[in-house]
């Protein structure tokens, strides 16, 4: 009897799960049908992941840039952009802030997702504005090729960290296939470096400062060194929506451009929003180093992304960049 | 014939459900919905190849080791604490408090204290799965049959003999119920502990597939976890049958009266 009830229990769960999933897939909103609100605004959703960049979009919303271009925008926050891909694919959200890795991956997996605009550009003159690879105090590692056979932490496996560090090591004459990558949140890196659990770790501001204060140093600003910095983050769009509403997509990009312009010139206003948006202390918010924001999409940089992703087998078939970059 | 009939009962519903699943997911639907055939192909190619040695076995090894530690520690502490009324009163509120803390929330702390290694992952599993065994053992020891307990005293059964021949068998139904719960808790914690700061394991691979938008591969990992759960509970059922033979016999006899 016990085994029968177990089987029944398991199958009930399976049925519930299957029904739920089917419900999701059939009940989802088609990306092409977007109805206007009473004020004549087009409702639009943008997925973002938790980072200081949230403040940039929020500032644009508060300044009314999106409303001026006819949008009633909803900003949806999630922990990672990969987690929001199903929503982008089904058309529940029309745009998504992501590393180029995410839309390129999605495309090779058969999702209709395109890169429509740039977002963050890594400032070549500052390390602190983005992520870098750091080592602890008294580390014997001096350059990327010393990472051979070492334990290196990145924030997500198969991400810009993995391809970026691989490329930096190879450019330095090392063999990246011997590196042991482990997934570790950016904020856990200072402690792990100090205890010697990892030989090097990828982290960002404000933790870069924390590692440096403890005697550590930057081993490689790999995103910059690999030439990936110009399109470090991009805005991806739902392919069906873009095909059916090219003018609306243009309007959206125009609103983004105004937002970026405002953000690049008003760092203090952005910093003032951080404590409430991300619950970080005000002192830390004031010290936030802002990167450059730009809507420019550089096909050469995105091509480098695709090439590295193919070389390090993040994707199994070569990405078709012509299909991935949206044509105005 | 009987075996065939039982087999049909066992597999009938799953087969029907898989067929429904197969036909319902045919045609043009979201790539995020799992389909039975690709899922099975990935299950074979992903988990039964090289990854069996590099990820599946390390995961299972950590799980079994952690469960063994939980059971031994839980039973030993449980017998000690359960045997003395004052110890019970002293420790029980603390245990109820500690068991309510999800051990996953301790991962960042354990990363610092234990470090970024297998010991950390095993600690996470033990911190979660020890409580059902420990608390059930205490209850089992406390509710020993009084007549048996007093008879043992009269016959001069003390010390180890008492623990081995009276306390442990008497508490075993409760202990086994606790072990059953910790299997489920342990499996969950095995996966979660590998999603943070891990270089191998089933949980790490599933997270990796999720990051890489490898949807069928990810679902095949979910299937693997289900299989591991079923195998664990089958082994448990066998062990329980042996350990509680006397108890099942006693119950059957009582029901017969």
Automatic annotation (TrEMBL), chain A:
InterPro entries: Solute-binding_3/MltF_N, SsuA/THI5
Name of the protein this chain belongs to: Solute-binding protein family 3/N-terminal domain-containing protein
Localization (cell): Periplasm
Organism per entry: Microbacterium suwonense
Higher taxonomy: Bacteria, Bacillati, Actinomycetota, Actinomycetes, Micrococcales
Limits of the Solute-binding protein family 3/N-terminal domain: 43-268
Family stated for the protein in its record: Belongs to the bacterial solute-binding protein SsuA/TauA family.
Gene3D superfamilies xrefs: Periplasmic binding protein-like II (3.40.190.10)
Keywords from the named record: Signal
From TrEMBL, chain B:
Principal subcellular localization: membrane
ABC transmembrane type-1 domain boundaries: 56-240
Places the protein is found: Cell membrane
Superkingdom of origin organism: Bacteria
Keywords: Cell membrane, Membrane, Transmembrane, Transmembrane helix, Transport
Bilayer topology annotation: Multi-pass membrane protein
Entry's transmembrane regions: 7-24, 63-84, 96-116, 122-141, 183-206, 218-239
Family designation: Belongs to the binding-protein-dependent transport system permease family.
Name of the protein in its database record: Nitrate ABC transporter permease
Organism: Microbacterium suwonense
Top-level taxonomy: Bacteria, Bacillati, Actinomycetota, Actinomycetes, Micrococcales
């Amino acid at each position: 009897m016990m085994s029968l009830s177990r089987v029944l229990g398991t199958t009930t769960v399976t049925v519930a799960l299957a029904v739920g999933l089917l419900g999701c897939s059939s009940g989802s909103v088609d990306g092409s049908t977007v109805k206007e609100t009473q004020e004549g605004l087009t409702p639009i959703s943008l997925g973002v992941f938790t980072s200081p960049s949230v403040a940039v979009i929020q500032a644009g919303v508060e300044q009314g840039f999106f409303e001026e271009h006819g949008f009633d925008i909803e900003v949806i926050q999630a922990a990672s952009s990969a987690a929001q891909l199903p929503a982008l694919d089904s058309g529940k959200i029309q745009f998504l802030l992501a590393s180029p890795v995410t839309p390129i991956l999605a495309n090779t997996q058969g999702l209709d997702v395109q890169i429509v605009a740039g977002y963050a550009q890594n400032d070549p003159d500052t390390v602190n504005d983005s992520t870098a690879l750091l080592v602890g105090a008294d580390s014997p590692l001096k350059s990327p090729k010393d990472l051979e056979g070492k334990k290196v932490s990145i924030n997500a496996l198969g991400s810009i960290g993995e391809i970026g560090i691989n490329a930096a090591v190879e450019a330095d004459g090392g063999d990246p296939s011997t590196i042991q990558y482990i997934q570790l949140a950016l904020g856990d890196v200072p402690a792990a470096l100090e205890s010697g659990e990892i030989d090097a770790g990828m982290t960002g501001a404000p933790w870069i400062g924390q590692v440096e204060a403890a005697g550590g140093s930057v081993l490689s600003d790999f995103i910059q060194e690999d030439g990936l910095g110009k399109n470090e983050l991009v805005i991806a769009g739902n392919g069906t929506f873009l095909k059916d509403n090219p003018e609306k997509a243009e309007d959206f990009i125009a609103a983004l451009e105004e937002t970026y312009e405002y953000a690049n010139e008003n760092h203090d206003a952005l910093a003032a929003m951080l404590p409430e948006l991300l619950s970080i202390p005000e002192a830390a918010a004031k010290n936030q180093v802002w990167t450059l924001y730009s809507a420019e999409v550089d096909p050469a940089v995105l091509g480098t992304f695709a090439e590295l992703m193919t070389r390090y087998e993040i994707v199994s078939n070569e990405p078709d960049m012509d299909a991935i970059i949206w044509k105005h | 014939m009987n075996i065939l009939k039982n087999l049909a009962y066992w597999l009938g519903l799953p087969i029907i459900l898989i067929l429904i699943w197969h036909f319902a997911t045919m045609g043009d639907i979201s790539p995020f919905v799992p389909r039975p055939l690709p899922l099975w192909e990935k299950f074979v190619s992903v988990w039964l190849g090289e990854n069996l040695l590099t990820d599946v076995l390390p995961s299972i090894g950590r799980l079994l080791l952690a469960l063994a530690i939980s059971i031994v520690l839980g039973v030993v502490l449980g017998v000690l604490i359960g045997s003395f009324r004052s110890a019970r009163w002293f420790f029980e509120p603390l245990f109820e408090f500690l068991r309510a803390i999800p051990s996953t929330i301790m991962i960042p702390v354990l990363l610092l204290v234990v470090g970024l290694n297998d010991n950390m992952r095993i600690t996470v599993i033990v911190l979660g799965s020890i409580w059902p065994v420990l608390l059930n053992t205490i209850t089992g020891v406390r509710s020993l049959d009084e007549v048996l307990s007093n008879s043992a005293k009269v016959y001069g059964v003390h010390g180890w003999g008492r623990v081995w021949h009276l306390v442990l068998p008497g508490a075993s139904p409760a202990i086994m119920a606790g072990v059953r719960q910790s299997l489920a808790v342990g499996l969950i914690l095995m996966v979660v502990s590998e999603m943070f700061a891990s270089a191998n394991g089933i949980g790490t691979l599933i997270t990796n597939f999720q990051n890489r938008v490898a949807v069928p591969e990810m679902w095949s990992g979910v299937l693997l976890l289900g299989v591991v759960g079923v195998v664990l509970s089958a082994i448990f059922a066998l062990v329980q049958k042996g350990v509680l033979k006397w108890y099942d016999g006693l119950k059957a006899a009582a029901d017969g009266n």
